[in-house]
Design goal:
Layout (H helix, E strand, L loop, with lengths): L2 E5 L2 E4 L4 E8 L8 E6 L6 E6 L6 E3 L7 E6 L4 E6 L8 E7 L2 E2 L3 E6 L1
Parallel strand pairs: 2-11
Antiparallel strand pairs: 1-3, 3-8, 4-5, 4-9, 5-6, 7-8, 9-10, 9-11
Length: about 110
């Protein structure tokens, strides 16, 4: 069965960095676009970044452009989200997603 397992979240001060990972299994990872979403308390889920199957087409929400970088390692079945210059507004649960499947999320908390 398809599994997406996020890791790497935590508590960081504003201006700091975190790298999220999403380990995928149960499908042919290299064939699928991967996405990162986030959901802050009392807000709708927001698409943060997407990466094509080959890793050559990247898209970002305006709110994270220039600060976040999505990447993938098809040999390791893993997608990453490097988050730099974090802001308090980036506080959310971050989810990995592909096709109809979602991970359980990892909490990112940015303190001022």
């Amino acid at each position: 069965q398809v599994q997406l397992v996020e890791s790497g979240g935590g508590l960081v001060q504003a201006g700091g960095s975190l790298r999220l990972s999403c380990a995928a299994s149960g499908f042919t990872f290299r064939l699928y676009t991967m996405l990162w979403y986030r959901q802050a308390p009392e807000k709708e889920r927001e698409l943060v970044a997407t990466i094509s199957s080959a890793g050559n087409i990247l898209n970002y929400a305006d709110s994270v452009k220039g600060r976040f970088t999505i990447s993938r390692d098809n040999a390791k079945n893993t997608v990453y989200l490097q988050m730099n210059r974090l802001e308090v507004e980036d506080t959310a649960v971050y989810y990995c997603q592909t096709m109809k499947y979602w991970g359980r999320g990892t909490q990112v908390t940015v303190s001022s």
